From TrEMBL:
MF GO annotations: lyase activity
Organism phylogeny: Bacteria, Pseudomonadati, Pseudomonadota, Alphaproteobacteria, Hyphomicrobiales
Quaternary structure annotation from Swiss-Prot or TrEMBL: Homotrimer.
Pfam families named among the record's database cross-references: Aldolase
The organism of origin for this protein: Beijerinckia indica subsp. indica (strain ATCC 9039 / DSM 1715 / NCIMB 8712)
Pathway info: Carbohydrate acid metabolism
NCBIfam families xref list: PRK09140.1
Family matches, as SUPFAM superfamilies: Aldolase (SSF51569)
Name of protein: KDPG and KHG aldolase
Similarity-based family: Belongs to the KHG/KDPG aldolase family.
PANTHER family linked to this entry: 2-DEHYDRO-3-DEOXY-6-PHOSPHOGALACTONATE ALDOLASE-RELATED (PTHR30246:SF1), 2-KETO-3-DEOXY-6-PHOSPHOGLUCONATE ALDOLASE (PTHR30246)
PROSITE patterns: ALDOLASE_KDPG_KHG_2
Amino acid sequence: MTETVTHTHPDSLPKQVPWPKLKRNLVAILRGIKPDEVEAIGMALFEAGFDAIEVPLNSPEPLESIARLLKLLPAHVLIGAGTVTEIEQVDALAAIGGRLMVSPNFDKRVLHRAASAGLVTMPGIFTATEAFAAIHHGASALKFFPASVLGPGGIGAIKTVLPKTTVVGAVGGVSEEHFGAYVAVGVTAFGLGSSLYKPNMTHEDVAQRARLAVAAYDQVFNAHMFA
């Protein structure tokens, strides 16, 4: 029996939605947050200097939380969903006006659907093969996940062979204490989860952690800029 091989024609690939120019490439990951607390915490993050917020879809009523953030915060704030693994989830996110889609993995079907809907995309990748595949299929940025396993050395080694314009993010086991080591190897974006927010934290707790993260980010990038 002859096996049929199908190829993706370049013209069928969706146009890449570029990563937006944010003041800081810091994405707050609010895993486990509930709709009745998301507004206070979202405002605390925005006031501290975060311009991107992700509500993972394995949180309680995530689409309701995202809808509330979209209504609350200025239009330039990048708000969307994380842990997006299915096409139907992309459709639901786009339907409520979400702009950011973050995945733990690379799935070209999900990535194509999100890009076709005009969403900013950040698929999870771990290897050079996955990185180049995600770039080819229109990823706005790459999410090296879990970053703590690869470490700055592993990510830096892959970064050297990627296109220079690639937005490289580190997510998973990363806090503000690690910014310097990752920035030194070319990482320009960070997703902060449990170091920033855990369920049942007050908005005051999150605001304090957010201010520390923003101060650390600014210090590292200012030092790197003038090094």
